[in-house]
Amino acid sequence: MQDSDQILQEIRKLKIRIKYLENELVITKQEQNDTTQNYYELYSTLEQKVEERTKELNDALDQINKYNTQLETMLEERTRDLIKTERHAAFSLLSQGIVHNLKNPLSIIHGSTQLINYLKPDLSNENVSPKVSEYLENVNSQVRKLEIGVERMMEMINSLMTKSRSDKSENIEIIEINNLLKGELDFLNADSVFKYKTKKVINLYEGALYTEVVPGELSQIFLNLIRNSLDAMYGQDDAELTFESGIRDEKVWFSVSDNGPGISEENQKKVFDPFFSTKPKASDVASGKPTGTGLGLHMCMQMVHSYKGNIELESKPGKGTAIRVILPKKKIDN
Prior knowledge:
alpha+beta; rod-shaped
């Protein structure tokens, strides 16, 4: 009996021990699960942080590449600006030398026209044939045109000589654009190609267009644009020029259009650069054909910009070219 009781007691102890071990096993398994879960969470967190850090590094690399591209672009722009500045400086020196050398022969021509006027006989009271009278009138007309041409050339030369000065107020006048354009068109009738071989369409603004400029410079711009168009249409049987003017956004403008061969898209970006020309040099072509130095349009742009204006170019190959000069409008008190 006593042995049975001992056996039962041992069995109870054994059950308790087994129960304890089972609880320990459950706890160990739970801890293992918790540990595994913590590992997965830690791994996920670490993976997320690695992804975030990798993204930050890639973003930083993209930003560095962007800054590098911007720096390269800025360097290219600065280089182009420096090249243009050097070209402008060379152009200024060249133009000063040219205009200085032009003054002497122009002064001789001007003096000769004055001498012709002084020496010409007064035949108003003489009986001369109509043919002689007509001939003398033609001579006087041509001499007067020569005088006007020399005066304008001297104005242009003086303007170029003082181009380096920022203050041109002593030469600036308020002018009416349409009147100036009409006067220049009348003056150009001395050119046989312009007068007889070129159709002219004139659509000027009906009202007055006032701006404040040096008149000689605006004349030079207008004549340069016309000359470029005539050169572009050289040898063309249906040559046509269109002259227009108007008002836009408190600005006044005039334009010269031709039906010549037009300008390629590539050359349109360079036509206002100094020394760029699509025309051959004078030494490379036969006499009479148009030649260029690449200075005309550049000078036009410089002069227009000096008045806070702008020049717009529209051209399509095979369909002609139009150049519009835009200047600040000057209000006139009535």
